[in-house]
Amino acid sequence: MTKTRRISGFLGLPFVFWAAAFIIIPLLMVVWYGLTDENGALTFANIAAIAQPAHAKALLLALLLSLLATAVCFLLAYPLCMFLVEAQKTSNSFLTMLLIVPMWMNFLLRTYAWQSILEKTGIINTFLTAIGLQPLRLINTNGAIVLGMVYNFLPFMVLPIYNVLEDIDKNVINAARDLGANGRQTFLKVIFPLSLPGVISGITMVFIPALTTFVVSSLLGGGKILLIGNVIEQEFMVAYDWNLGSGLSLVLLLFIIINVVVSVISERGEEELRRRKSDAEA
Amino acid sequence: MKNELIHLNHISKSYNGKVVLDDLDLIIHENEFVTILGPSGCGKTTTLRILAGFETPDIGSVIFSGKDITNLPPNKRQLNTVFQNYALFTHMNVAENIAFGLKIKKQSRSYIEDKIQYALKLVGLEGFEKRSVNNLSGGQQQRVAIARAIVNEPRVLLLDEPLGALDLKLRQDMQYELIRMKNELSITFIYVTHDQQEALTMSDTIVVMNQGYIQQMGTPEEIYNEPENAFVADFIGDSNLFPGIFVRDEMITIDGVPFACVDTGFGTNKPVDIVIRPEDVDLVPCGQGTVSGVVTDLIFKGVHYEMCVDVNGREWVSQSTMPCAVGEEVDISVHPFNIQVMNKPESEDEEAVKTDD
Ligand SMILES: Nc1ncnc2c1ncn2[C@@H]1O[C@H](COP(=O)(O)OP(=O)(O)OP(=O)(O)O)[C@@H](O)[C@H]1O
Ligand SMILES: [Mg+2]
User: Fold this and answer.
1) What is the DSSP string of B212-232?
2) Residue B105 touches partner A, C-beta closer than 8 Å
3) How confident is the model over A83-134, as pLDDT tens digits?
4) Concatenated DSSP letters for A250-265?
5) Contacts of A187 (CB under 8 A, 6+ apart)
6) I want to staple B273 with a disulfide (CB 3.0 to 4.6 A). Which of A36, A41, A78, B342 is the partner?
């Protein structure tokens, strides 16, 4: 017993080193830089800097666009997953592969691809002018950024939802039908509630990378639309102001933590509530 | 005769080329308690799924009250199912599970509340309303599944091994409750079980199935006393199952020893299967029986003793309230009425219905 525990402790060791080197130490550095000025004196100025109009605007825009992208991802992913689970049941796993695999293609490559599709001289506009229409301004818009976010982060929504939907016992759905529920009622009262944990983790997994991205916004926003991720990136890479960059990162981290906490609470909340109710009953 | 309620009209069903139900034809009457009995994988659940509407037959139709409901969706059918794996709604508590069907039917709140209390009392789970179904034992989940179906007062209740997870005492209690409920609410029960004892005690009609065929259908007495073939005889109750020769009407031989029987019409000198129930094998003092042997085994079974008797190398099993000592020489005597003669399977198709166990 203790021996196996010791061995499994050893097995965890590589990860502990990895986590220390690549997660904990960088995080501590961010906290350190974020809370000090260039002379190493303690200050909250870097964090308060979020209130500057340019920074606040970038943060609000990032929140807005990433929420929008998360919503679109959800609306696309849920029906897709329902379809995939159904297709998989009729032993059409090839179809599943066909739809899922391209989603894991390299992130940068796909964003570049969208760039060339949306460009002023890109595929869409070439087509539009060819059939005699006015070219549209597609690239460097908020819409293009949301599109890029959705396209890149959709797999993170699909996967958890697909997993929960696939896990639902077909007989539980049959039971709902058996008890008189029509298709819509079965979905609303049984399938959707049972899939909520997957939906919640999908939302978290899309919202966080979308909120913090700077690649999508710089490639499809053309450097004209700044999200908070771009601001932070520029502080680090252009202005070399690591203190300010870290301070703003800490603000962003706060939003991530809020998101994670909310999702964990809502996942556990229902069960907890029920337990408390039955305790009160007893 | 009672009114015909359901007709499974020559139903066949295969999955990926594997035949699961083969020309199954079954008529169920109003307020009847029908038990489908058979070994694992013989198609019992598939039959219920077709009745409930989760599955459509490849060939054949389902007639309900004279109407063809083969393609009617499950929510439009006047029957409810108790699923083999319970299939409870894990995101709801016990009361919400039970109320599901009633809420869909938009019953009043007080009606639903009464029904929940009634059903919980029925299945012996008073006070469990607010419990999450995830922390219930298998037996408790099974009873919630029964309650969830019964509150809807369906015309037909399909029960797929509904008492499988219960211990003997609770199972017997629930058997009585189910029968009482059936008579009280005049619901038709279609009941699936592995347990032959359960089938014999509860049913009006037993349907013995094997490999997608109906082997025999009849009252518990008919099935027990007059099995039509070796499979049924073997599956229902303990039995001595011997190969024999039907010499002529009212006369057979087992291992060359002649026995009088009451069956007629099997031909002359034809190989047949013979079934003799252990309780019909009488052990009598030497010289008073038909054939003699030596007691090789004696087991106390509670109400009776079970003795194994070696008769020229063939083992006969006898049950009696009077024990015989191991090693004792005894004669065997069987009343002609208790010898059941059955045709041997002839075609390969029929051979397929025989099992080894
Ligand atoms: N959806 C399905 N796809 C493929 N094969 C199936 C399917 N459902 C059932 N079968 C097969 O059909 C046969 C009969 O299954 P069924 O569930 O009706 O058996 P059963 O009599 O209920 O058995 P048990 O007593 O073990 O519950 C089995 O061989 C099973 O593997
Ligand atoms: Mg079954």
Assistant:
1) TEEEEEE-HHHHHHS-SSHHH
2) yes
3) 888 887 776 667 677 767 777 777 788 888 888 888 888 888 888 888 888 8
4) HHHHHHHHHHHHHHHH
5) none
6) B342
Identify the bridge partners of residue B245 per DSSP, sorted by sequence position: B253, B271
Range of the domain at B316: 240-343
Q: Domain boundary residue among B193, B225, B257?
A: B225
| Ligand closest to CA B47 | 1
Overall size of chain B counted in residues: 357
Nearest CA to ligand 1 atom 26: B40
Q: Which residue of A has its CA nearest to B150?
A: A179
Domain A50-281 part of CATH 1.10.10.10? no
Give burial (CB, 10 Å; 0-12/13-18/19+) of A142: middle
Output the six-digit token pair for A27: 């995080």
Contact in structure between B252 and B245 (CB atoms under 8 Å): yes
CATH number at residue B171: 3.40.50.300
Q: What is the pTM of this model?
A: 0.82
For residue B330, list its beta bridge partners: B293
Q: Has residue A2 got a pLDDT over 80?
A: no
Asked whether residue B29 falls in the same domain as residue B147, the answer is: yes
Pocket of ligand 1 (CB under 6 A): B 15, 20, 38, 40-46, 84, 194
Please name the residues in contact with B13: beta carbons below 8 A apart, sequence gap of 6 or more: B19, B20, B21, B43, B46, B50, B55, B57, B58
By mean pLDDT, which of A2-16, A113-127, B168-182, B283-297 is the weakest?
A: A2-16
Q: For chain A, what are the domain ranges?
A: 50-281
Angstroms from B171 CA to nearest CA on chain A: 23
Nearest CA-CA distance, residue B74 and chain A, Å:
5
User: Of B191, B225, B259, which closes a domain?
Assistant: B225
